[in-house]
TrEMBL record:
The keyword Magnesium does not apply. It comes from the Bacteria. One of its GO terms (biological process) is chorismate metabolic process. This is Protein AroA(G). Keywords: Transferase. It comes from Paenibacillus albidus.
Amino acid sequence: LVARKSHEEDTVIVLPGDVTVGGSSSLMVAGPCSVESELQTRTVAAALQRAGVKVMRGGAFKPRTSPYDFQGLGMDGLRILREAASEYGLLTISEIVDPRHIDEALDYVDVIQVGARNMHNFELLKAVGEVNKPVLLKRGLSATLDEFVHAAEYIMSRGNTQVMLIERGIRTYEKSTRNTLDISAVPILKQECHLPVLVDVTHSTGRKDILIPCAKAALAAGADGIMVEVHPDPATALSDAAQQLNIDEFNTFFNEVKASGLYR
Ligand code: PEP
Ligand code: MN
């Protein structure tokens, strides 16, 4: 179902407000790693609206390495995200980690994110495959493209055809970036599948200083969109403090990406 040979044209996913993913226009998805408070979320939402961004991300269920680290605000986080987004006319993307949370989350998210750590969680994939809500599927930490595509197939085989893929870097021996951005994943996925393909430049690199060239490379390689983390005061962030852009840095980033002519 995911394969290009089953569906020759690019799939375009239409989100509320006629925001499209795939096809002729690029999509910028931005927002904090975690929803931390109303003020933090509203501050980012206001900045994104001013910048012309249509879709805000924000994690509420955070899959952290350590159980002692901030785990996210859960359903309260989703409510905060939705309220801030609605106030500023934005759509929402947030990760769901447990099939039991899906029903309740449907009121708060416009796109369900399946995180890298859950790409192999087949019961979650089947569960998001059964709802009528677009899904943003992240590539697993060490997933091959074949495994990634099969994870998307799990979702689609349950009836949900609104699936977007996102490359977020893979584990390699290279230590100069948090993960290794597999830029070749973009043209391969675009060639072999008909689904929109995005690139998360933040988690793939873990470094703010190379986001602009990485985003340009992703778009030049055919990506339909970019995801980037933005926080009003990254130094105080409860997760991923080192890699989030502040609002000024985000504006510079987005302006440079648009100025490249690669962002359609
Ligand atoms: C995220 O996008 O919030 C996230 C946790 O990323 P990943 O699942 O790619 O690690
Ligand atoms: Mn993060």
